[in-house]
Design a protein that fits this description.
The protein folds into 2 domains: about 190 residues, no CATH class; about 270 residues, no CATH class. About 70% of the residues lie in helices and about 0% in strands. The protein contains 22 helices and 2 strands. The chain has a two-stranded antiparallel sheet.
């Protein structure tokens, strides 16, 4: 009975993918809460349909296929649980950000298209419940008040939201001519659409100091727990997840850990975000007890990060710390110490290159083959410079052109601009660069005045560096989470600015912009 619904074929998946990204884009840019709620509703319904259709024949859904009645009952129970969680979020708005941050690291392996993808199922449930909690009151309010001129919108999209929407729509449209549409569809249904809704939800949260402290506690608590698991892995020389890493550890003298993550680099990325948040607090701490606690936490997390042997994560941490230093003390006072650290690091690498896994005579070996991937991606871009080969096509096109010895190991260029250029051409690359400019402008402007905003800005820049030497930008929920939180904090700072200025300036600000001067994030 369910098979005709989910076993989509022909042009339906492509049309569904384009419609899904259009709905997500509308949710990002809609200024009217009712229109935003309608777009979120459509995306919330369509994305799971595309997702289930894509994994319909996977072993995980065998029970659903063979026992549709039981599956329908389970679906009703799940909807009831989602509705209860949504009701809780509607009454207690702080539950959404707390659960979203708590769910960020946890992935569930699901077989898709012959390969296993690690999907953020807990986060999807949180996003769905949060969207339900936001949609119902917006539709009720929109239906009851025609004018609503006296009410300010909770959140007003700007250039960042427009460019996020453009990037999402471009990805969906360029998926229609991709040589690997299934991969692009997975990116859309599993990542872009739900994470766009996550951004919209987080951008409207009122991030009070109490909520920020609670969220910091969640992130740091998780990071400490994951580090403890990593220490156990290192002590026992036993990896809990990731068979590829287990095989790699068996072949080398060193031993990498990944805690509960499926990749040591993703584990390292999460630890870096937590460390930068703690470092931002440490820079603004005034009490000795707080300084000591922050230093102790950083020492533990540093130990966990070192055991990952993730060069990309270590580099991201340095970039994030440099950003915090610039925000705290200015570029001039930070430049010389930063150059000194780089010089010392370079000297150590040159003195003992094998200690750091560097082969001075073979750049490709030192980068684990990534330099070859970058050159191959550049060749793909040169072959189709305007439109690229289509979203999600890098792996297939690279294998077709370069004939690598191990095609299964090729998943991305590990340099996001190269992947974007090869798949989406100059059109996608320009949209990507414009998005970065808007994101940095949003997060950095005025960030020095707030430890929370400084932490978000430093974490985003560290994440950006990580994407340049590893992978995953808009496919990573951390990107959307940081942008959503940063957007809400920036809006709150703009709203508070007139209140802290003189009465004359406040009157001038009201006269210039009225009720829409700087909407507070709610």
């Amino acid at each position: 009975m369910l098979a005709p619904i989910f076993a989509l074929a022909g042009p339906a998946p492509k049309a569904g993918a384009v419609l899904a990204v259009l709905l997500a884009a509308c949710a990002l840019v809609a200024g009217d809460p009712r229109r935003r709620a309608l777009a979120m509703s459509g995306a919330l319904v369509l994305a799971p349909v595309l997702l289930v259709a894509d994994i319909w024949h996977s072993p995980q859904l065998a029970t659903v296929r063979h026992h549709p009645a039981a599956a329908a009952v389970a679906a009703l129970v799940a909807l009831g649980a989602l509705s209860a969680l949504a009701a809780l979020m509607a009454r207690r708005p702080f539950v959404l950000p707390l659960l979203a941050l708590a769910a960020l690291p946890f992935r569930v392996p699901i077989q898709v298209g012959g390969t296993t993808s690690n999907l953020l199922v807990p986060l999807y449930l949180v996003v769905a419940a949060g969207a339900l909690a936001a949609i119902a009151p917006a539709l009720r309010a929109g239906g009851g008040a025609a004018g609503g001129s006296e009410e300010r919108p909770a959140w007003s999209p700007g250039w960042l939201e427009r460019l996020l929407a453009l990037s999402v729509v471009l990805y969906g449209v360029q998926a229609t001519y991709s040589s690997d549409f299934d991969k692009a569809l997975q990116q859309i249904a599993f990542f872009l659409v739900p994470f766009a809704l996550l951004f919209v939800l987080l951008a409207q949260v009122e991030w009070t100091p109490r909520l920020l402290r609670a969220c910091l506690g969640v992130v740091v608590g998780l990071a400490l727990a994951f580090s403890a698991i990593g220490f156990v892995e290192y002590a026992t020389k036993h990896i809990f997840l990731n068979p590829k890493l287990i095989a790699s550890n068996d072949l080398h003298a060193y031993f990498r850990v990944n805690s509960v993550f499926f990749d040591p680099n993703i584990y390292g990325r999460f630890l870096v975000i937590a460390m930068l948040a703690v470092a931002a607090v440490l820079l603004h701490a005034r009490r000795g007890q707080a300084v000591g606690a922050a230093a102790a936490v950083l020492a533990v997390l540093w130990g966990g990060l070192v055991l990952t042997l993730s060069q990309s994560s270590l580099g991201a941490l340095l970039v994030g710390l440099a950003t915090l230093a610039v925000l705290q003390w200015g570029a001039r006072r930070t430049l010389l110490p930063a150059l000194a650290v780089v010089a010392v690091g370079a000297a150590l690498v040159l003195a003992t290159p094998h200690t750091f896994g560097v082969n001075l005579h073979n750049v490709d070996a030192s980068s684990s083959g990534r330099s070859t991937l970058v050159r191959g991606g550049g060749d793909l871009f040169a072959a189709r410079p305007l439109t690229g080969y289509g979203s999600g096509s890098f792996e297939r096109e690279y294998a077709r052109r370069e004939h690598p010895a191990n095609p299964d190991a090729t998943t991305a260029s590990h340099t996001i601009p190269i992947t974007v250029a090869a798949e989406q051409g100059a059109i996608g690359l320009l949209a990507y660069l414009a998005l970065l400019a808007a994101a940095l402008a949003r997060l950095l402007r005025g960030a020095a005045a707030s430890p929370a905003r400084a932490a978000v800005a430093a974490a985003f820049i560290a994440l950006l560096f990580h994407t340049l030497v590893y992978a995953a930008f808009l496919e990573d929920p951390l990107t959307w989470t940081l942008l959503g939180i940063g957007t809400a904090l920036a809006a709150a700072a703009r709203a508070a600015a007139p209140a802290t200025s003189s009465p004359a300036l406040r009157a001038a600000a009201r006269a210039r912009s009225g009720a829409s001067a700087a909407p507070a994030a709610r």
